[in-house]
Amino acid sequence: MKLDKYKLKKLVFENVVLSEGLRYHLNHSKPLVENIYRPGSERFFSLICESRKWYNKGMLSLLEDDIEIINSDLGEWGIYEGREIALDFPISQEADALIQTSDLGYHKSSELLNKVFNNEFGNQIEVEVRDTRPGDFLEGEELYDGVFIRLTGPDSETGNVMTKKEAQALMSLLYDYFCESEYCDLHEGKKKRKRKSKKKSGTLYKGRKVKLNKPKRGGKKKFYVYVKNPKTGNIKKISFGAKGMTTGLRDPARRKSFKARHNCEDKNDKTKAGYWSCRIGRHPKVTGAPYTTWW
Questions:
Q1: Is residue 175 part of a domain?
Q2: Residue 88 falls within a domain, yes or no?
Q3: Which of 235, 266, 286, 288 is 20 to 30 A from residue 95's alpha carbon, by CA?
Q4: What is the 3-class SS of the chain, one letter each residue?
């Protein structure tokens, strides 16, 4: 990221004030892909938006990787299912669940989900949901018509009282995390839901139930997906996509170029990263872009 002397004098003459973060990047010739702020923070997005503003005015010279960021929707926000979400910003399912509960003010749910995601309960989790009893409340806590949720596993156990609305949101997130459309191992009974590790299940990956053929953001690369190897019957995790790079799904020219470079029409092996890279446009909930294909 550079700003030549002529453009700098022009900005000074027009009494333009650059943010501290942008000045640091300029003074140290630091690219935007090495954003000095914590990813996802307000300043992280603000720096990108500020850089985009001055680049579009012809005041900044950027590296190719930086231009990818500028041409993306990173730093912009949209509405998805009534929630405000950051566009083109990779986020794991676990982090998204914690953000949802935090945004809603469901702090008790956040605490329970944190323990689940950190595997504090072990490989088998039992979830008990029932009406509250006076003994469930803390000393001095006002009684109210809510529910008591207890999570129990071989390694830990915890319980909490919460409103019915919060409990409904929590159970929905747990369902999404542990279940898939064809089969779910979070069995729903009258008062209990359980998650059990089954040795003979065809969708277990390292002892954990996973959703097959459903790409997600996060991991070592930008996306990952679990697939079943048809030859061995084993579950394989495939990581694909470069972090810090946009998919280019909104740009017809980039889609055409990607298809040509990667021979997408010949990619038919689901156990290879190229197959999923060529078809990520078919998963708009993951990409944040409209549904599309490479061809």
A1: yes
A2: no
A3: 235
A4: CECCHHHHHHHHHCCCCCCHHHHHHHHCCCCHHHCCCCCCCHHHHHHHHHHHHHHHCCCCECCHHHHHHHCCCCCCEEEECCEEEECCCCCCHHHHHHHHHHHCCCHHHHHHHHHHHCCCCCCCEEEEEEECCHHHCCCCCCCCCCEEEEEECCCCEEEEEECHHHHHHHHHHHHHHHECCCCECEEECCCEEEECCCCCCCCEECCEECCECCCEECCCCCEEEEEECCCCCCEEEEEECCCCCCCCCCCHHHHHHHHHHHCHHHCCCCCCHHHHHHHHHHCHHHHCCCCCCCC
User: How many C-beta atoms lie closer than 10 Å to residue 199's C-beta?
Assistant: 6
Q: Which two tokens stand for residue 132?
A: 């509250």
Which residue stretches of the chain have pLDDT < 70? 1-16, 92, 123, 179-207, 244-246, 289-295
- pLDDT on residue 11: 54
Q: What is the pTM of this model?
A: 0.48
- Do 124 and 186 have their domain in common? yes
Q: Which residue range(s) make up the domain with 51?
A: 5-71
